[in-house]
Amino acid sequence: MSTLHFASALLPSGWADDVQVVVTDQTITKVTAGVAPGPHDEHHELAIPGIASLHSHAFQRGMAGLAETRGNSADTFWTWRETMYRFALEMTPEDVEAVATLLYAEMLEQGYTRVGEFHYLHHDHDGAPYTNPAEMATRIVRAAEITGIGLTLLPSFYAHSSFGGAAPHAGQRRFICSIDQFAKLTDGTRTAVRALPGANVGIAPHSLRAATPDELRAIAPLAENGPVHIHAAEQTREVEECVAWSGRRPVEWLLEHGPVDRHWCLIHATHMTEAETIALATSGAVAGLCPVTEASLGDGIFPAREFLGAGGRFGIGTDSNVLVGVTDELRQLEYGQRLKHRERNVLSGGPGVSTGRALFDAALIGGAQALAQPTVGLQANARADIVTLDTGHPSLAGRHGDANLDGWIFAAGAGAVDTVWASGAKVVENGRHVLRQKARDAFNATVRRLVA
To answer: What range(s) does the Amidohydrolase-related domain occupy (predicted)?
Structure first.
């Protein structure tokens, strides 16, 4: 058991002063406000809950910044994807573990305490399954175990290159599974996470491009009441091809045939009509938004104001991991809306409401739902995922309450996160993960070889 004391902390009921938090066996067992620190309490100034990156492709952290030279024709998501395929084809299981380990350490340093790993790099270089079908998933589990981050592992079903069951191409060979192979992979993934406290498993049909309706129905029982994540409507070309195939737009098709409910998370959902936006908001599903990656790939801007106005829930993800940070995603989400609507504080929700607080609360709740975490935040029975901010940071000086979140998200940039506990273990102190240098050295050696 350990006891922490915070001069100020964001609880589910709001900000409170002089908060004592008791942690037992990875879980918060008691929270008391208005008490002086005890002689054995570890004291900090300002605490907030850790939140989830609900959508990550860990291996892509290794290629961050390697697709920023313009080709002979227009650079798009589709040309970036070819670079990603070439990078993925070179990676060994050891490479994946090294890259994911640094990524997860970086996530923790930036205030993420759980990751939803949408995992589709499954097979050996030639496309043949490893002796252990879940070899790559096991490496992801190992990276989470080493760093301490919470893990929801979402093995991805990927069978086709485009709508209507089109044959996959050679660059996708490490992703491709039959239904039987995917069942074995999912079973192996569940075995791999058993040794990791608090970890859970869902499934991730990659997209309507990659899975036929019959395949979606066949793999659905493998979720076993866990989360179901799927990419949808990220690109306008995807929407056009989906209409040509089915007569329906991607989100429209999923809402009609899913069945999409609170267990589902639609990643991106960038290009929706007004009717789709309202229907998704009322379905109970979470929109998995990855604003930095969506900007990096030129995807477009999610209709966030309309979606939230209809009661929709969202979480944030780091996706391609080209830039890793809670504040980067939330700031980009709001700034995209400001550019689109030519207004300020678009997503605050109403007069006098802090935009930083509104964004943070929504991402905390939506991320927890998308990763099937029933209790989050600084409250009893929640996993002890706690982040302290450095009140000496210039962008937090003199702030109180919600102004701390506004200063952190919109002004502080890097360096404002001080200490992080993940599942009750202190994994970040003075802004540095305990394994930062070791993880960085292994990552650098791996990427130098891959780039060469």
So the answer is: 47-425
